[in-house]
């Protein structure tokens, strides 16, 4: 059981280090919220500098004062009580937790759906490739996937946005929904319609990784003695494929599954920016352009927490799933 | 039996052996592997474009194409004079691609280099020394590995507002080294137990000799492949940061072109301007594909075990 405690401490440390680090990085940023908002007002509403400056001055009471180190301890103490401060310029005075809570579901919807689809599709294709190992189909797909995997997701997102949303008009160009939110079938369909392109982008990029990973691990499982033995015993091939090969081949991919979750949370900054999708990533980008310090740190922290907890769950469950690596 | 050896090893022979080992044999392997050879040619083409290109292709000045008239936006299809058409400010897109190549490639290779060096150093020290130092280093590595790289880069980029490729390269490798360090460590741990390392230790060879002459060759192919992955990863994040507009726009860069096509020129709305968006996209994908294809032959080229057949 000792390694579980060690793992928990390491996860806690990772969150603590990341939060402290970003606190100081963000506060070292050039430019303050008042300047940033003045700029934004001039650009958006063509205000004169004086008028914009006067409006932006309303932020002053929300800007933290006092020595930086004091602010840091104050922030950390509040952080572990679940208080992430208030937004300065994005939505003045509103608690950061409230703003983030409204954005998290959208990111989770897109990331989780695309992860599940690409994992299911990828492992299926990967297994198929492993069974056809050495054939033209296998080597062709392997080449295609290793190329696809190296293409940045945002390039695919830009292409999809341009072709499927703007040219062909099959999908909306921005936002998460366009009808009044309600628990109706129409709203759910609308949400899925808006989420389709971001999900499709992730799936196209991530299927290749899963397929290649599953192909590799299936090939190595197929060489194991217990598969030969199972065949010799005359077990139905369906059972061999699902229980003997499938289960054993998927296990090593499982840790990767949780890590991908974290990676996608990070990468969602690009995807959400391109599709103007109201998730955490887009909020991080908006907070940076407005120099909204606490919102910035908050959005970053949420991503870090998601990643760390994902990795933690992967480690803990993996050792329960695979008795061979159960420690102590 | 004479104890004196008739064969004298001259410096010339050593150089010959090095050329044989590092150029002729890998070259033969490369030419035989068709995919990797194509990848190598593509990569070489990009490097040539970055080094020679700006001396041949004229500087992409604004308004070299006729000034556009709103509301038609840009309608300059590719022509003989401007093979890839023109951009938002009436600049030649092909020129922008060529002039953007040096920074993109520099940043990518520098970041890949720093990532690999830091990863090797930490992994080697950790694997070799063991003990408390190992625990501390791996503790740090674990923490760095869990911090999501991209959001941290986005925050960092706004603080470090530098256009210096070395500074950007260092920034990009701030979290990227951790994965490599971990795997180098585990490889060193397993190599350390092998007979030939034991033998080298018994012979009293220095640690430097063991590290660089005994262990390194065994890790070379692994390190080379990771260098390529670190490079493609650096392209992903650096072009992405330029695309988001978080790095200063002082030079030409494909990410900046993407940003202009996305935010200014409305390259998505109208089909007439799609070439503005497609040019940087194809440039980036082409480079990534070249590197990935090239990596196919690396294992054969640098792995001493696989080289026996040549």
Q: Over all CA atoms, what is the radius of gyration of chain B? A: 24 Å
| Category by helix and strand content of chain A | mainly alpha
Largest interface, and how many residues on either side?
A-B, 51 and 41 residues
**Assembly category:** heterodimer
Instruction: Let me know the number of strands of chain B.
Output: 0
Strand content of chain A: under 5%
Shape of chain A: globular
Low-pLDDT runs of 5+ residues of chain B are: none
Biggest sheet descriptor of chain A: none
Please state the structural category of chain B. mainly alpha
Kindly state the number of beta strands of chain A: 0
Overall pLDDT of chain B? 78
Describe the overall structure.
The complex is a heterodimer of chains A (328) and B (310). Chain A has helices spanning 2-27, 33-45, 49-56, 68-79, 96-131, 136-149, 153-167, 185-222, 225-232, 237-274, 280-289, 293-321. Chain A has 328 residues and is mainly α. In chain A, α6 crosses α8 and α10 packs antiparallel against α12. The N and C termini of chain A lie close together (7 Å). The model of chain A has no long low-confidence stretch (mean pLDDT 79). Chain B is mainly α. Chain B contains twelve helices and no strands. Chain B has helices at 11-32, 34-51, 53-56, 93-129, 131-146, 149-159, 165-172, 177-192, 195-202, 207-244, 254-264, 274-302. The longest helix of chain B has 38 residues, at 207-244. The interface between A and B is large, with 51 and 41 residues.
């Amino acid at each position: 059981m000792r390694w579980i405690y060690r793992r928990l401490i390491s996860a806690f440390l990772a969150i603590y280090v990341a939060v402290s680090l970003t606190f100081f990085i963000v506060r070292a940023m050039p430019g303050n919220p008042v300047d940033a908002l003045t700029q934004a007002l001039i650009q958006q509403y063509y205000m004169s500098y004086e008028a914009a400056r006067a409006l932006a001055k309303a932020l002053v009471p929300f800007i933290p004062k006092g020595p930086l180190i004091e602010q840091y301890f104050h922030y950390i103490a509040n952080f572990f009580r679940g208080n992430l401060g208030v937004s300065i310029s994005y939505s003045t005075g509103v608690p950061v937790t409230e703003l983030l809570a409204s954005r998290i579901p959208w990111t989770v919807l897109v990331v989780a759906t695309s992860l599940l689809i690409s994992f299911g599709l990828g492992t299926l294709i990967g297994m198929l490739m492993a069974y056809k190992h050495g054939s033209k189909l296998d080597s062709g797909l392997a080449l295609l996937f290793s190329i696809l995997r190296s293409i940045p997701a945002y390039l695919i997102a830009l292409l999809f946005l341009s072709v499927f949303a703007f040219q062909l008009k099959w999908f909306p160009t921005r936002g998460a929904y366009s009808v009044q939110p309600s628990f109706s079938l129409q709203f759910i369909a609308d949400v899925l319609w808006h989420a389709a392109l971001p999900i499709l982008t992730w799936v196209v990029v991530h299927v290749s990784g899963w397929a290649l990973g599953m192909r590799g691990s299936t090939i190595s499982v197929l060489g194991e003695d217990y598969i030969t033995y199972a065949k010799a015993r005359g077990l139905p091939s369906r059972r061999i494929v699902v229980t003997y090969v499938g289960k054993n081949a998927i296990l090593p991919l499982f840790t990767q599954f949780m890590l991908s979750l974290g990676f996608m949370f990070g990468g969602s900054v690009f995807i959400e920016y391109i599709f103007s999708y109201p998730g955490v990533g887009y909020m991080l980008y908006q907070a940076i352009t407005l120099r909204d310090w606490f919102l910035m740190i908050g959005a970053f922290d949420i991503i870090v927490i998601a990643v760390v907890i994902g990795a933690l769950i992967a480690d803990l469950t993996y050792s329960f799933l695979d008795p061979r690596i159960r420690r102590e | 039996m004479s104890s004196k050896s008739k064969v004298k090893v001259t410096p010339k022979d050593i150089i010959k052996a090095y050329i044989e080992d590092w150029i002729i044999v890998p070259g033969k392997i490369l030419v035989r592997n068709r995919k990797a050879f194509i990848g190598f040619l593509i990569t070489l083409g990009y490097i040539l474009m970055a080094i020679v290109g700006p001396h041949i292709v004229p500087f992409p000045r604004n308004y070299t194409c006729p000034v556009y008239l709103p509301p038609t936006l840009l309608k300059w299809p590719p022509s003989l004079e401007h093979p890839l058409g023109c951009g938002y400010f009436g600049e030649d897109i092909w020129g922008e691609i060529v002039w953007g190549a040096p920074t993109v490639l520099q940043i990518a290779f520098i970041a890949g280099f720093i990532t690999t060096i830091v990863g090797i150093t930490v992994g080697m020290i950790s694997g070799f020394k063991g003990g408390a130092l190992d625990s501390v280093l791996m503790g740090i590595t674990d923490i760095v590995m869990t911090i999501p790289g991209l959001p941290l880069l986005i925050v960092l980029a706004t603080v470090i507002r530098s256009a210096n490729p070395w500074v950007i390269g260092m920034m990009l490798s701030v979290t990227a080294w951790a994965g490599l360090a971990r795997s180098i460590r585990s490889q060193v741990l397993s190599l350390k137990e092998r007979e030939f390392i034991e033998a080298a230790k018994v012979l009293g060879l220095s640690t430097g000799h063991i590290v660089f002459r005994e262990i390194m060759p065994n890790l070379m192919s692994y390190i080379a492949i990771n260098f390529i992955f670190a490079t493609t990863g650096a392209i992903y994040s650096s072009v992405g940061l330029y695309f988001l507009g978080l790095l200063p726009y002082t030079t030409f860069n494909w990410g900046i072109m993407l940003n202009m096509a996305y935010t200014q020129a409305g390259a998505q709305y109208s089909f007439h301007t799609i070439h503005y968006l497609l040019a940087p996209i194809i440039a980036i994908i082409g480079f990534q594909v070249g590197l990935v294809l090239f990596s196919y032959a690396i294992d054969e080229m640098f792995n001493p075990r696989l080289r026996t057949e040549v």
